[in-house]
Amino acid sequence: MTAVRPDTTPKQATEAQFPTGFIWGAATASYQVEGAAAEDGRTPSIWDTFSRTPGKVRNGDTGDIAADHYHRYRDDVALMKQLGLKAYRFSVSWSRVQPTGRGPAVERGLDFYRKLVDELLDAGIMPVATLYHWDLPQELEDAGGWPERVTADRFADYAAIVSGALGDRVGMWTTLNEPWCSAYLGYGSGVHAPGRTEPAAALQAAHHLNLAHGRAIEVLRAQLPAAAQTSVTLNLHQVRPLTDSVADADAARRIDAVGNRVFTGPMLRGEYPEDLITDTSHLVDWSKLVRDGDLATISRPVDALGINYYTPTLVSNPVEGATYARSDAHGASAHSPWPGSEHVAFHLAEGKERTAMDWSIDPNGLYSLLMDVTRDHPGLPLMVTENGAAFDDYVSPEGKVEDPERIAYLHGHLDAVQRAVADGADVRGYFLWSLMDNFEWAYGYSKRFGAVYVDYASQRRIPKASAHWYSDVIRRHALPPVGTV
């Protein structure tokens, strides 16, 4: 009888599957990709004005052409289909749809989004619409912008226009993208449009953005089919104290209050946190800013919370007499984007690899953030609505773009998502930032976040190695072993 030899063939590691129904997508924003800045009735947004202001954007770049998605959307959707994307998260340009921020819609502007949505649906890709990704119509800013309460009223009207036009075909909606950036970078540090440096106005803007979100949710619920999903996307800061000292713990508490709980408190609990009010009472009178009924409106239930994550936030209470460069990952300015906590010191994590933005790479920050939100808001479905990295990508003589650093970044962060799911976080999807290289706000075209390389001179699209890797992840519905595609 012949002996049976043991099978010594190396076995491939078992691939842990993502949950059934997990959504695989990629994201962009209107001003960053569309171009066509003055076509079909579109008027300037605050980013058109800001980018034309000398010294505000690197190299004097503007979004006038960007990635020309307005004219090339059919080819871009075909590329999405080729890569196997299941969802595309785009934002609507308010000034393309409602140029003055008031009054009736411009149908030519709405037609672009109707055609885009139809193209996506024909390709089997779920459209995910974000109503606001920072491009306020300039006329509304001229009237005071987000620090004025009336802007929330105008936003509700705009939400009614867009949802009325697209609600029969778009089943997933996001009100605001990263209101922290709109309020604090736009009105606090001034590194984003409209470039104001007024701490009190930044806090007023934060409240009115919250109110705009709540009013938009009311409109969406009234107009959309019952099955439609609503959400808001926050860039929640995964805040860590530099040391275990009491002073550093308080610094972390302060940044958590003004960076995170200023939004999650009213949106998810129906209240502003008392410590935030105390920390900022010298800047605004919250008892007058927040009117009767505001918190009930702001806390209208959402179907999911979108979370954007790139890097953790490391803070300390400053040592007396020491000076610190504010390494808070949000651009250089003599003015702080942390109203009421301007004294807090920010640090770059030691021993961590960094992206071209000089942001430390730490997937554990995403895991911790997802678990923290799950603990604080049990039962709330979550979506990772932005995650990605900029690197110094280039086209090889063979016409390829190899970006192993981005693949490693994505692998680590998707592993963090998978670990969080295994530990009880209800994460329903992941949207890579970004589908393609684009106008990176105050950095202009100097930073490339895309999975698809854009040659801005020719507008040629070249999928990077990371795009093919991500396509394979989608196909597998699982992470491949490290080092494989």
From TrEMBL:
Keyword presence, Hydrolase: yes
Catalytic activity: Hydrolysis of terminal, non-reducing beta-D-glucosyl residues with release of beta-D-glucose
One MF annotation (Gene Ontology) recorded for this entry: beta-glucosidase activity
Alphabetized InterPro entries for the sequence: GH (IPR017853), GH_1_N_CS (IPR033132), Glyco_hydro_1 (IPR001360), Glyco_hydro_1_beta-glucosidase (IPR017736)
Keyword Hydrolase: yes
Enzyme nomenclature, EC number: 3.2.1.21
Alphabetized Pfam families for the sequence: Glyco_hydro_1
Keyword line: Carbohydrate metabolism, Cellulose degradation, Glycosidase, Hydrolase, Polysaccharide degradation
Family: Belongs to the glycosyl hydrolase 1 family.
Classification via PANTHER family: GLYCOSYL HYDROLASE, LP05116P
The name this protein goes by in its record: Beta-glucosidase
Source species: Streptomyces argenteolus
